[in-house]
Give the backbone structure.
Amino acid sequence: MRLTDTQRQNIRRIVHEELGESATVKLFGSRLDDTARGGDIDLLVELDKPVEHPAQLSARLSVRIMRAMHGRKVDVLVSAPNLSEQGIHKRAREQGVRL
């Protein structure tokens, strides 16, 4: 995993500030490959409660985490009971590593 302990802590802190302690966050994608270089940060945020404005939530989390990562691009997928699942959600859940 190509994130430092501090980066992982910052991501968890931001997600929990926005969504509470029950929210989980997983890293997936190229950042899991220790031999790769560069790449954005792909995150899956899983919630146990419905979300009213998932696109706004995803954008807000992305911007806050991007600032904490000194401008590194961050993509945030949101999973909640009221949202439809796509293939990317399944792959992120299967391949992702919880932070």
The chain has a mean pLDDT of 92. The helical segments are 5-19, 54-68, 87-95. The radius of gyration is 13 Å.
